[in-house]
Each structure stands twice: as C-alpha cells, then as structure tokens.
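Title: Prediction job returns without error message
Component: structure pipeline
Severity: low
Priority: P3
Assignee: unassigned

Description:
Job completed but the reporter wants confirmation the result is attached to the right record. Sequence as submitted:
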Amino acid sequence: PRPGLLQVVKQCVRVPVFVMIRPRGGDFLYSDREVEVMKADIRLAKLHGADGLVFGALTEDGRIDTELCTALLAVCRPLPVTFHRAFDMVHDPLVALETLISLGFERVLTSGCDSSALEGLSLIKRLAEQVRVPWGGITERNLQRILEGSTASEFHCSARSARDSGMKFRNPNVAMGASFSAPEYSIKVADVAKVRTLNAIAKNIL
C-alpha cells in the first residue's frame, strides 16, 4: 500500500497492520533496482506506522533467497515479518520452511503449494507442526473444513466482493490495463459480511 493508505487504515482499525512489500507482479526473482525499491518501501512503511512487514524472495532454482531475505529482514527490524505466498512456488516446501524459521520469519502465507488451502491441506498439516501458517484460497464455504483438518491457529483470506463503479459516463472503447475479469467499472472491496461470517466460523472452531 501507499503511505497515504497505510496512514488512513491505521486511523480506522485497532488490529495490527502488516504491510506487503512487493515492487511488481510476476515472479519473486528480483533485480538490484527492485531490491532498492523494496528497502525504500520498508523504511516508508515503518515510518508511517506499520506493525509488521510481509515479503518473499526466491532464487532462480526455486529456493528461498537467504541473502536477500537476510538483508531485507535487517531493514525490517525490530518489526515482525511474514513470508508471503512466494512460498507456494518453492522447490521443496519442507526445506524452505526450515530455512524461513532459521532466518527469523514469524509467519508464512501459503495455500499448501496448491490452488487453494483446501487442496493443499495435507501439506499444511505437516507445515503447521513447525510454524504458524496462515493460508490462502479461503472462503466462508471451506474455512470450517480447513480449520478442523489442521492444527494451525490463524488463516489468511481476501474476503472481497465486486462493487459496481459509481461512474455514470463510461467509455467502452478504452481499457486502463485491467483484465477481462476485473474491468475498470468494477471495484474489488473488503466485504464486511464475509469478514463477520469468517470470524464467527473461526471463533467456533479455534
């Protein structure tokens, strides 16, 4: 998020706010320039009140980039750090998790190296015995089964829905880079009802 968004979020919520550090979409193999951007973004996030940071970096052969992660962790101190779903693209998740533990990451975001946490549940069970592992691909339809089928105590999801744009004039001939699944006149927003439903499910299970 931009510093302005972080500042406003911090004014509106009481839960800890962790900031994602990701200079671009695509893979998790970063150039020297991108690393400089990541370091600058970490410093800005800390300056504007982030409670923790979230990032991930891999080597070209699908292993944790220990050198880069160590350098970024140093910039993040003393805040806690989570390794994001770059984890789902590693060559060996069990070895990768041990590496992350040794580096000092406190959490890992993962869908069990599968399309969603439900499909990756068997791996999540193994990983959760080693470290707290929130997951991805979670909805109000599958959360209960996932929580009941693992020993992890936290979960991660977007809980979003689409909201139609308030624009009355719309130019159908121009696209601003959005894909067909996310047009300019549809906005993804956090869905309060979904968040409340997920919280209720979790409180009933955990």
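Comment from assignee: result matches the submitted record. The chain has seven helices and six strands.
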